[in-house]
Amino acid sequence: MDANNSSDYELVVEFVNGRQSSIEILIRRHQKRVYSYIFLLVKKQDVAEDIFQETFIKVIKSLKEGKYIDTNRFSSWAMRIAHNLIIDHFRREKQSKMLSKDAYEVDILNHPRYSDKTVEEIIVFEQILTDVRALIEQLPEDQREVILLRHYSDLSYKEIAEQTNVSINTALGRMRYAIINIRKIMVENKMILTS
User: Fold this and answer.
1) What is the pLDDT along the chain (195 residues), one digit of tens a residue?
2) How many CA within 13 A on the CB side of residue 152?
Protein backbone atom coordinates (compact mmCIF):
# COMPACT_ATOMS: atom_id res chain seq x y z
CA MET A 1 0.00 0.00 0.00
CA ASP A 2 1.26 3.49 -0.88
CA ALA A 3 2.04 5.36 2.34
CA ASN A 4 1.04 8.65 0.69
CA ASN A 5 -2.54 7.37 0.58
CA SER A 6 -2.53 6.34 4.25
CA SER A 7 -4.61 8.29 6.76
CA ASP A 8 -2.88 10.52 9.29
CA TYR A 9 -3.63 7.96 11.99
CA GLU A 10 -2.10 5.12 9.95
CA LEU A 11 1.02 7.21 9.42
CA VAL A 12 1.21 7.97 13.14
CA VAL A 13 0.99 4.26 13.98
CA GLU A 14 3.64 3.41 11.38
CA PHE A 15 5.95 6.10 12.76
CA VAL A 16 5.48 4.98 16.36
CA ASN A 17 6.28 1.42 15.19
CA GLY A 18 9.58 2.59 13.71
CA ARG A 19 8.89 3.67 10.14
CA GLN A 20 10.68 7.06 9.92
CA SER A 21 9.38 7.89 6.44
CA SER A 22 5.83 8.12 7.82
CA ILE A 23 6.59 11.27 9.81
CA GLU A 24 8.09 12.87 6.69
CA ILE A 25 4.82 12.25 4.83
CA LEU A 26 2.82 13.73 7.73
CA ILE A 27 5.01 16.83 7.84
CA ARG A 28 4.79 17.34 4.07
CA ARG A 29 1.03 16.86 4.21
CA HIS A 30 0.46 19.54 6.84
CA GLN A 31 3.45 21.88 6.49
CA LYS A 32 1.75 24.53 4.34
CA ARG A 33 -1.16 25.07 6.71
CA VAL A 34 0.96 24.98 9.88
CA TYR A 35 3.67 27.25 8.48
CA SER A 36 1.12 29.74 7.06
CA TYR A 37 -0.59 29.96 10.45
CA ILE A 38 2.72 30.59 12.25
CA PHE A 39 3.93 33.15 9.71
CA LEU A 40 0.63 35.01 9.80
CA LEU A 41 0.98 35.59 13.52
CA VAL A 42 4.72 36.21 13.89
CA LYS A 43 5.14 38.07 10.56
CA LYS A 44 8.86 37.24 10.33
CA GLN A 45 10.14 34.45 8.11
CA ASP A 46 13.12 33.43 10.25
CA VAL A 47 10.99 33.32 13.42
CA ALA A 48 8.24 31.41 11.60
CA GLU A 49 10.75 28.84 10.33
CA ASP A 50 12.17 28.36 13.84
CA ILE A 51 8.72 27.89 15.38
CA PHE A 52 7.71 25.56 12.53
CA GLN A 53 10.77 23.37 13.20
CA GLU A 54 10.15 23.48 16.93
CA THR A 55 6.52 22.48 16.33
CA PHE A 56 7.42 19.30 14.48
CA ILE A 57 10.22 18.44 16.91
CA LYS A 58 7.57 18.60 19.63
CA VAL A 59 5.14 16.59 17.46
CA ILE A 60 7.75 13.85 17.00
CA LYS A 61 8.64 13.83 20.70
CA SER A 62 4.96 13.68 21.71
CA LEU A 63 4.26 10.85 19.26
CA LYS A 64 7.20 8.85 20.60
CA GLU A 65 5.98 9.43 24.15
CA GLY A 66 2.48 8.24 23.22
CA LYS A 67 0.85 11.62 23.96
CA TYR A 68 -1.19 11.74 20.74
CA ILE A 69 -4.66 10.23 20.98
CA ASP A 70 -6.30 9.79 17.59
CA THR A 71 -9.21 12.13 17.09
CA ASN A 72 -8.91 12.15 13.29
CA ARG A 73 -7.61 15.68 13.73
CA PHE A 74 -3.83 15.36 13.52
CA SER A 75 -3.73 18.73 11.75
CA SER A 76 -5.58 20.52 14.56
CA TRP A 77 -3.34 18.85 17.14
CA ALA A 78 -0.18 20.00 15.33
CA MET A 79 -1.66 23.50 14.94
CA ARG A 80 -2.40 23.60 18.67
CA ILE A 81 1.27 22.80 19.41
CA ALA A 82 2.31 25.58 17.01
CA HIS A 83 -0.18 27.95 18.66
CA ASN A 84 1.29 27.29 22.12
CA LEU A 85 4.83 27.85 20.81
CA ILE A 86 3.73 31.15 19.23
CA ILE A 87 2.31 32.27 22.58
CA ASP A 88 5.60 31.29 24.25
CA HIS A 89 7.48 33.31 21.61
CA PHE A 90 5.43 36.46 22.21
CA ARG A 91 5.76 36.09 25.95
CA ARG A 92 9.53 35.87 25.59
CA GLU A 93 9.76 38.75 23.16
CA LYS A 94 7.20 40.97 24.92
CA GLN A 95 6.66 42.40 21.50
CA SER A 96 5.26 45.90 21.15
CA LYS A 97 1.54 45.97 20.45
CA MET A 98 1.75 48.62 17.76
CA LEU A 99 2.24 47.53 14.17
CA SER A 100 5.13 48.91 12.15
CA LYS A 101 4.75 49.56 8.44
CA ASP A 102 8.01 47.64 8.09
CA ALA A 103 6.14 44.47 9.11
CA TYR A 104 5.05 44.05 5.48
CA GLU A 105 7.64 42.03 3.59
CA VAL A 106 5.82 42.44 0.27
CA ASP A 107 6.05 45.80 -1.46
CA ILE A 108 2.35 46.44 -1.93
CA LEU A 109 3.08 49.25 -4.39
CA ASN A 110 4.65 46.78 -6.85
CA HIS A 111 2.00 44.10 -6.53
CA PRO A 112 0.42 43.35 -9.95
CA ARG A 113 -3.03 43.10 -8.36
CA TYR A 114 -2.96 46.85 -7.85
CA SER A 115 -1.36 47.85 -11.14
CA ASP A 116 -4.50 49.55 -12.48
CA LYS A 117 -4.83 51.83 -9.47
CA THR A 118 -3.22 55.20 -9.13
CA VAL A 119 -0.30 55.68 -6.75
CA GLU A 120 -2.59 57.70 -4.47
CA GLU A 121 -5.15 54.88 -4.33
CA ILE A 122 -2.44 52.39 -3.52
CA ILE A 123 -1.04 54.55 -0.74
CA VAL A 124 -4.53 55.00 0.73
CA PHE A 125 -5.18 51.23 0.51
CA GLU A 126 -1.84 50.46 2.18
CA GLN A 127 -2.65 52.92 4.95
CA ILE A 128 -6.04 51.28 5.49
CA LEU A 129 -4.36 47.85 5.83
CA THR A 130 -1.90 49.30 8.31
CA ASP A 131 -4.70 51.01 10.28
CA VAL A 132 -6.77 47.82 10.39
CA ARG A 133 -3.80 45.78 11.66
CA ALA A 134 -3.07 48.48 14.27
CA LEU A 135 -6.72 48.33 15.39
CA ILE A 136 -6.53 44.53 15.66
CA GLU A 137 -3.34 44.82 17.73
CA GLN A 138 -5.22 46.98 20.29
CA LEU A 139 -7.76 44.24 20.99
CA PRO A 140 -7.50 41.86 23.95
CA GLU A 141 -5.48 38.77 23.01
CA ASP A 142 -8.45 36.37 22.75
CA GLN A 143 -10.36 38.74 20.43
CA ARG A 144 -7.28 39.50 18.33
CA GLU A 145 -6.62 35.79 17.95
CA VAL A 146 -10.10 34.97 16.63
CA ILE A 147 -9.93 37.78 14.04
CA LEU A 148 -6.52 36.62 12.81
CA LEU A 149 -7.62 32.99 12.62
CA ARG A 150 -10.89 33.81 10.85
CA HIS A 151 -9.90 36.56 8.44
CA TYR A 152 -6.22 35.95 7.88
CA SER A 153 -5.93 32.15 8.27
CA ASP A 154 -9.40 31.52 6.79
CA LEU A 155 -10.37 29.01 9.50
CA SER A 156 -13.99 28.15 10.19
CA TYR A 157 -15.46 28.94 13.62
CA LYS A 158 -15.41 25.21 14.36
CA GLU A 159 -11.67 25.08 13.56
CA ILE A 160 -11.07 28.23 15.62
CA ALA A 161 -12.90 26.66 18.56
CA GLU A 162 -10.75 23.52 18.30
CA GLN A 163 -7.57 25.56 17.84
CA THR A 164 -8.18 27.77 20.86
CA ASN A 165 -9.78 25.05 22.99
CA VAL A 166 -13.10 26.87 23.47
CA SER A 167 -16.70 26.30 22.34
CA ILE A 168 -17.96 27.59 18.98
CA ASN A 169 -20.23 30.01 20.85
CA THR A 170 -17.25 31.43 22.74
CA ALA A 171 -15.34 31.88 19.45
CA LEU A 172 -18.37 33.63 17.91
CA GLY A 173 -18.73 35.80 21.02
CA ARG A 174 -15.09 36.81 20.86
CA MET A 175 -15.52 37.81 17.22
CA ARG A 176 -18.62 39.86 18.08
CA TYR A 177 -16.81 41.70 20.88
CA ALA A 178 -13.76 42.21 18.66
CA ILE A 179 -15.89 43.95 16.02
CA ILE A 180 -17.66 46.05 18.68
CA ASN A 181 -14.30 47.05 20.17
CA ILE A 182 -12.81 47.92 16.77
CA ARG A 183 -15.81 50.16 16.01
CA LYS A 184 -15.50 51.76 19.45
CA ILE A 185 -11.77 52.48 18.94
CA MET A 186 -12.54 53.93 15.49
CA VAL A 187 -15.22 56.24 16.91
CA GLU A 188 -12.99 57.35 19.79
CA ASN A 189 -10.16 58.13 17.37
CA LYS A 190 -12.48 59.56 14.67
CA MET A 191 -11.11 57.04 12.16
CA ILE A 192 -12.71 56.40 8.77
CA LEU A 193 -11.45 53.42 6.81
CA THR A 194 -12.47 54.01 3.23
CA SER A 195 -10.51 54.20 0.01
Assistant:
1) 566 778 888 888 888 888 888 899 989 998 888 888 888 888 888 999 999 999 999 999 988 888 887 666 888 888 888 888 888 888 777 644 444 445 545 544 444 444 455 566 666 667 777 777 778 888 888 988 888 888 777 788 888 888 888 999 999 999 899 889 888 888 887 766 665
2) 18
CA 131 to centroid of chain Cα atoms = 20
| Residue of 59, 50, 48, 54 lying closest to 24 (CA atoms) | 59
CB 147 within 8 Å of CB 136: yes
The CATH architecture one would assign to domain 98-195 is Orthogonal Bundle (1.10)
Other CB atoms within a 10 A radius of the CB of residue 189 amount to: 10
CATH topology of domain 1-95: Rna Polymerase Sigma Factor; Chain: A (1.10.1740)
Q: How far apart are CA 97 and CA 87, in angstroms?
A: 14
| CATH 1.10.1740.10 boundaries in the chain | 1-95
In the chain, CATH 1.10.10.10 covers 98-195
